[in-house]
Each structure stands twice: as structure tokens, then as C-alpha cells.
Amino acid sequence: MSSGSVRLKKAGVCSAALLASTMFTSAAYAQAQANQNTALEEVVVTAQKRSENLQDVPVSIQALGGEKLEQLQVGAFVDYVKYLPSVSFTTSGPGFGQVYMRGVASGGDGNHSGSLPSVGVYLDEQPVTTIQGALDIHVYDIARVEALAGPQGTLYGASSQAGTLRIITNKPSTAGYAAGVDLELNQVDHGGTGHTLEGFVNIPLSDKIAVRMVGWDVRDAGYIDNVAGSRTYTRGDTDPTNDYTIYNKARVRDDYNTVYTQGGRAALRIELDDNWVITPSVMGQVQKSGGLFAFDPKVGDLKVTHFYPESSKDKWVQAAMTIEGQVANLDVTYSGSYLKRNDVTNQDYTDYSYFYDQVGYGFYWTDNAGNLVNPSQYIQGKDRYRKESHEIRIASPQDQRFRFVVGGFYQKQKHGIFQNYKIDGLGSDLSVPGYTGTVWLTKQNRVDRDKAVFGQAEFDITDKLMLTAGVRFFKAHNTLVGFYGYGAGYGSTGEKACFKGPVVAGSPCTNLDKGVKESGNSPKVTLTYKIDGDKLIYATYSKGFRPGGINRRSTLPPYHADYLKNYEAGWKTTWLDNRFRWNGAVFMEDWTNFQFSILGANGLTEIKNANQARIKGVESDVTWVPVHGLTFNASAAYTDAKLTANYCGFTDASGNPVTTCATPQAPDGTVLPITPKFKANLTVRYDFSWGEWDAYVQGSTVGQTSNWTDLRIVERGIIGKQKGYQTTDVSGGIDKDGLSLTLYMKNVFDKRASLNRYAECAESVCGTQYYIVPNQPRTVGIKIGKKF
Questions:
Q1: N or C, fewer C-beta in 10 Å, the chain?
Q2: How far is CA 578 from CA 40, 128, 582, 597, 745, in A?
Q3: What is the pLDDT of residue 576?
Q4: Distance CA 738, CA 733 (A)
Q5: Residue 447: what pLDDT?
Q6: In this structure, what DSSP letter does residue 131 have?
Q7: SS3 of 379, please?
Q8: Residue 503 near residue 484, CB atoms below 8 Å
Q9: What is the DSSP pairing of strand 303-304 with strand 225-226?
């Protein structure tokens, strides 16, 4: 990503470019050079779980095809999401990003015991959404990325309340042999060097069987420096000899947030006969990250002063199978998967121990002899995810006037949670039993179950008018059991709150065993009118849901499911002999009793239902090919998301939000966090011949306006506002007979975009010590590839 010198305003450069693009008339086109090769390529999507032309689908979809992903130098989640205007996100590093769509965001999500995501992420047919962040899948040999905005609950279920992201891989083909390899080297300003080695091969083993294998090895350079510093803890008395000073000399290192990613994918296509095809696949990735992906503005640009090891290892593998066939004239599809994901993390937690323990109370931790010890804390974490999903659906022939798809779905997610808060030298009488030196332990098992049946039907009322109606009936069951808190030597929670022996292996006892069950439905109705073969308009009412769950804190009731009602009108149009495409939608969404997570006392997550919000917006994208070789792509979204009732910060005994209070934490009219009011991008590409080579030059700019990271007014004042930004990338390359050379520069002007802004604990305690997660600084790279 890169940034120009003009600061993006609500109606800035990108907005003007997009609006200008949408206003081209046939008179302007008549002045352009006509060429029979300027027609736009057809974009095929599977948003409705069948292959269709993007322009025929009455759903707000933006699709980035495989060729487009390569042209934009996309390799990871943060690379493609910036080109999806309806999508916003927060992140603390690779593999720990939270995704939002159309402003449906309250902030505070991502805790292991908190709410499920509001946006579903799919790898092919299988959901890969996990609670603490979507898989950061390396993008290579990918057919396309689809972003489906708005509730997709009818066909995609619980975690698609606000929308769905789908990553569609290239499948094995019996048509012939194909292979490719790519090597990339890059240099990051203020940082180190990186590389990427990727390759794929497609091999027909017979006229009925083919295999496709893909692999990658990536090193992303670090650019955050951990610089020397110290921190002094005071006892809270007048004796300075009781003070304790720590230093980070052993942890000082430049560019310490390096990332290593290795992974692969293998898929097999087996054509049993003319009607049945089986596609088993397996994909896995190991991502090792060092350091912190944020900087402390008080220390300096891209600098931080931390005292304990910081790292993560994200290892996952997914086995999946799709079976497609016909019974009579009905299409039958089964898709199933099993995801195994293990995360190991190490975190510096000295901010919490300094601001909460020391400043608030004076530090007091002692060893077995009663001597004061270094009170600073660090966290050792292990997360074990297991996700199993099965779906079967039956679809009628698509050439009939009445068409339908019906199906059933089952999903079970298990999350083994281990969070070990350590103080070196802590006495055994203050430690959690079985974990000497552990001041706080979280050892829990969480299970989320989801069962559903669904159906959707289409009826051609006339040749031009079509009615689509569907509904999904669901049952959800959330349970959380295990241990959290202190040992018996301190506090009133933890071991002192245990009511039975250990249920979760490795826990000292059990002080938490809760569950909640819910059921409901999510309907959808769409009316589509085809003006002609190149243009359609549609109107949709749809409803999305997100299951509720339990609060660990015993004084809080369970939180309820929240619902999103969507009223939408959209258009899909192609003009100028298929050289100009303009799609868009306007929408209004009512978010009822939405779930809101905060860090309460002792840094314990609390989830409450928080009244109502209304979100209004417009999203649009255009593609224009005025002359042969020249292509303009632009897309933008304007989102106005606000509370329509006070958020008081508490609920009644049944968990229902209270709206009447003397001083609301966020009054009616407060803008929702995370999502900018305006986000846009523009890409201009020119393809031409250079001797015997095919050549291109390209420039892209993306930007967005400012946004908050918290809903509550006081916390906003403490943590601050994220500024808007605009960035620019450029690239150019040549290709001949499958041999390609590409030069690129990302973040040409080396600007800092704030991707997240946070404190280590509650803003009211640690808010004066906040961090900013930046985009990657200016990066220059060269890429060489060969296709066979």
C-alpha cells in the first residue's frame, strides 16, 4: 500500500474518479477509438452455489479474479481487502484479523470467549471462520475472491450475518498438463528483505482423473524496531528501595516482526462417470511471526519498547471433499470438511501490570519467602481449534421456469483455550495450583454447534420479472466449561469460585460450566427485473442472525442472538457494447440488540446486547475499457452507521439492553466504530506490445476516511481516532511465451495507514499507553515467473 500527498476527504480524489467514471456517456465514448477486442471479460461467480455470470446475479457482489489478484500483487488478506470497499477490518498481526461488512461492527470482537464473527469466510465450499480471526490464507493459484455484501444467512448461515468472503481455488482439470513457478524478491523501507517462492502443477492422470498441487514459501520482512528502554514499578510507599526497574536490553532488535509462511494444497478430481465427480482436497499452512505488528507513537515511528518474548505460530490443515452428481434431473452436492488449527502465542503484558497493578494499587507480588518480585507479566497462549462441517443440497434444473435449491447443514466448532499469565518468581501460595509462577490461568473448552435446513426458490413471473424467496431454519448451541482466574491465595474468583473438580484436562478445578440454546430463522425475498440482456435491477429484503452465548463472569446473564434486517435495491448494467460495466446497490439495515464486547474488571471480557443501530449506504463499482489495452476499475462505498438508541452499558436480569439512563456510554446518534464513512479505490492499467513481448503498466490508489475503534464516548477520547489515508501502488511488467518479469512498488509515498489502534487492557486503565498497527511501509519488489 502507498499514499499520495493529497489527503482523502469524504469526497476526495477517489470519489471524484469513481463518480466521473460512472458519468461517461455514449457521446464521450464516440470519441474513443473503437476496437473489437475491447469487450469486457465475463466474470463467473458461485455466490448462489451454482456457476453464473456476475451480471445475472441479483446480489451485491464484488469479485477479484485470479488474473486481477496477480495484477494487484495480492498475496495475503490485507492485500485484497483494501480493494473491497464494503469490507473493513482490524488486525493485530497475520492470522488475527477481524472482518466486518457494511458497517456492522461494534468493536471489541475477537476474544476467545466472545461473540462469533458477523462475516463468514469460506475456502471453496467450506467455512473456515474461527472466533479469533479468519485464516490468513496465502493467495496463490486462486480462481477468485468473492465479497457478498449484506446478510447471506439463507444459503451461508450463522456467521454470514453481515456478509460473506469466499476464496475459490483453481481446481484440477483433465483438459491437459499445466504448471507454473514464481520467484519474488522485495525490500521494505525501514525494514529488511523478503522473498516469495510459489509453484503449481496440474497433471491429468487419465481422461477421468487429474491432480493439482500447489506450494509456497514466503518470508515477509520486518519493519518494527524494539528499542532499548526501562520501566520502574513503585511500591506505593515512601521507601525508594522497594522500587523495581526492568530493562529490555536482551530484547532489543530491529525489524523484529518478520513472518515466515510455508504451505501447500493438493486436490484430486475423479470423474466416476458422466454424472458424478468427487473432488477431495487437503490444504495446510504454517505461519511463524516474531515481534509486534504495532508501534508506540510515544517511542517513535515504527518503534516500540517491550520486555518479553513476542511471537506466534499459526499452524492449520483442512481436509475437504465435494461430491457432485445427478439423481434423475436433480443436481446433488455434498461438501464436508475438517479443519484443525493450532496457535501458539507469546505476548508482552507489562502495560497491564504497570497501569493496573502498580499504578492502581502499588505492586505486591512476592515469592515464597515473602520478598517482592518483578511484577511485570507476560502471556503464554495455546489455542486448539477443531471445525467440522457438512452440507448437502439438491437443486432443480436451471433452465426451468421454477427453480429451487434445498439443503441441510451441520457444523461443530471446538476451541481449546489456554492462556497462562506469568510472573517470574511468584510464590507457590499465590500461583494457580499446578502452574507455579502463574498469576492467572484460563483453561477452557468452548463448543459452538449449528444445525440448519434451508431452501431457496426462483420463479420467472414473466420473461423479465423474477421472484426469489428463501428461508433458513437454524438451531444453535453454545457451551463453555473449565477454569479461569487466580489461585486460592489471591482474589475472590478463580480457585475460590470452583464448584467441582476438573472437567477440562490440565485445569485445577471447574468454576465455569454454562451453555445456551437458541433457534430461529432468516428469510430472504428478492424481486429482479431484467431491463434487457445487459441490464437488471433488483430489490431485496433479507435477514441475518448471529447466535448468542454465555458470559464467564457469574454476575452477568447470557447474551442473546442479534439480528440484521436488510432493505436493498441494486443494479447490474453493461453499456457501450460490453465495454463499460456499472454495478451498485443502496441499502438500509437495522441491527437489533447487537452484541457488544468490552474488557471489564481484571481484563475479563463481558458481552452484552446493546440496543439498536441503523446503517445506510451505497456501494458501486465500474469497469471501463475505452480503447484496446486501457482499463479503468473503480469501486467505492459510503456507509452511515449510527446508534438509534442509547447504549447505557448495562442490561436487565434477562440480558435485555436498558435504554434509559442519566449518562449513556454512547448516546443515540453515536457513529459505530471500525467502518470509515467512505472507502474507495481506482486502478488504471494499460496493456501494450513491446517488440515481441506483451507489456503493461499499472497504477492503483486506495483510501478511506477516519474512523473510531470503540463505541463508547469516554474510551474514544482516551484511545483517539484513526486518521483517514490514501495510498498508491505502481507496477509494470513484460511477458512472452509464459515467461514474465514484473517490477512493483507498494506504498509509493511511504505513508502510515492505521489498521488498528488499541491498548493492552481496558482503555480507562491502559488507554494512555496505546499502539497503532500500520500498513507495510514502502516496498519495492521484482518478480519472475514461468508458466508451462
A1: C
A2: 6, 36, 11, 47, 32
A3: 94
A4: 13
A5: 95
A6: T
A7: strand
A8: no
A9: parallel
> How many residues are present in the chain?
788
| Contacts for 271-275: CB closer than 8 Å, 24+ residues apart | 271/174, 271/208, 271/209, 272/208, 272/325, 275/325, 275/326
Residue ranges in the chain whose pLDDT is less than 70: 1-38, 109-110, 158, 236-238, 357-363, 601-603
Q: In DSSP terms, which residues pair with 617 in a beta bridge?
A: 587, 639
Question: Measured at the alpha carbon of residue 218, what is the angle toward residues 217 and 224, in degrees to the nearest 5?
Answer: 155
- Measured in whole angstroms, the distance separating CA 200 from the mean position of its chain's CA atoms is 26
As a whole number of angstroms, the distance between CA 136 and CA 77 comes to 6
d(C-alpha 745, C-alpha 409), whole Å: 45
Amino acid 363: pLDDT? 62
Q: Are 293 and 773 a contacting pair, CB within 8 Å?
A: yes
Task: Report CA 53 to chain centroid distance, whole Å.
Answer: 26
pTM above 0.70, yes or no: yes
CB 706 within 8 Å of CB 742: no
Question: Please, which residues have CB within 8 angstroms of residue 381's CB and are 6 or more apart in sequence?
Answer: 343, 344, 345, 346, 347, 418, 419, 420
Cell matching residue 664: 449513556
CB 85 within 8 Å of CB 681: yes
Model confidence pLDDT, tens digit, residues 745-784 = 999 999 999 999 988 877 777 878 899 999 999 999 999 9
> Residue 17 has what pLDDT?
40
**pLDDT at site 33:** 39
SS3 label, residue 655: coil
Report d(CA 509, CA 484) in Å as an integer: 9
- Residue 460 CA to residue 99 CA, distance in Å, equals 36
